[in-house]
Amino acid sequence: MPLVRNIILIAALLLVLAGWYAFRQNQRKRLQEKQVLLEQQQRAEQLLVQYMTHLQEKNQLIESISAELNQVEPPISPNPSIEGLLNRVILTDADWQQFKSLFEDVHPGFFSTLRNRHPDLTRAEVRLLALLKLRIDTGQMSRMLGISPESIHKTKYRMLKKLGDNAQSTLVALLANGEVRS
């Protein structure tokens, strides 16, 4: 009888130890997964910042070229390729797709949630919301999008009208934490 009791106690102790070991391994695995996700999120944020910096540098270069061309005496007739460069929208469709991909890495589900809850928003309004989410000032937005600051204000005004009665709370919630309320 004491032998059976000792075997049962040892088996129970081994089960407890095995359960504790499995629990600890599961905790370690979850911690590692969280660390990997955090590293991916940080990398995505870095890529988005680099991309935004690249766009701003392109804008500054185009502005400086434009300023230099305007100061040339006697004025030169614009070369069609230079004129095309100066009139080019900086955030082209290809640029937008790359930006959107990087943005989605940092703010997953932002665009799909926005489209599901507010399908009547235009492409310009969606772009504006993404740039507002990144807290980019109006001047930078206008240079990035190749439009005037007044156009930014008009787009924002129209978007707020479209969002209706709870537009301000929807906009604040969206820009604060990514949730889009209907």
UniProtKB/TrEMBL annotation:
Keyword annotations for this protein?
A: Membrane, Transmembrane, Transmembrane helix
Residue spans crossing the bilayer:
6-23
Q: Entry's SUPFAM superfamilies?
A: C-terminal effector domain of the bipartite response regulators
Q: Which InterPro entries match?
A: Sig_transdc_resp-reg_C-effctor, WH-like_DNA-bd_sf
Protein name listed in UniProt: HTH luxR-type domain-containing protein
- Tell me what organism the protein belongs to: Nibrella saemangeumensis
